[in-house]
Design brief:
Rossmann fold, about 20% strand, 7 strands
Amino acid sequence: MSAQGSSALVRFFGFPATLVHGDTLVLDRWLWLRPRLPRVMPGSARLLDVGCGSGAFTIGAALRGYSALGLSWDLRNIDVAVHRAALCHASTASFEVQDVRRLEDRPDLAGQFDVVTCCEVIEHILDDRKLMRDMSRCLKHGGTLLLTTPYSGYRPITRGDAGPFSQIEDGWHVRKGYTHAELAALCAEAGLDTVEMEFCSGFASQKITWLMRSAEDVHQLLGWALVLPLRPLPPLIDPWLSPLLRWPAYSVTLVARKA
């Protein structure tokens, strides 16, 4: 669906529409993030969304009271995010164009944030160690990193998920994903203590994603129309269906804290 069409949905349905207009796995990530972003008094905590895309999680955090700053290299994404934040009355959400590979260029961000979120970004970055260190640098002492990224053991949803993966940072994944142990090692090197590791996006979510991608090969609107009625199902059935089928999750999740 086009940015204009999805923003029209946001106009009518508010913030929930930002979670269901495109990538079918975005809702899973928000359902993981939300309980780890407790509501706060407006403006009492600051959050940095590294690689914010079109702003759904930045807006969601702002609606929970955070002064939330979303960073993206893509000016078009930033324009869409600003527009959607206004539609959602997320007055404490702001957005800036910033290459997240060069956070060292922003000394004003160092030690300023209670929470940093980074969802499905690190797998696009060649120097993942540097990104992790830079995100740690942006956190206050005791601050929390919330991160999701593909699991290296996932089953490919469609052919592109099987690789080959890019050798340059051209927008596609530069690696298949991570294990929990690999993320823990990155955290330790960056001065972050691992608090919690889980998974998200199980069998039902992945199969709905397959359906949408396949239908979009015919027409983008066909994929969206087929999948929209199915969106409520994965949160209801994946917690028991994925373990029953022993189906690997698509993403790993990480909570880490700056000592």
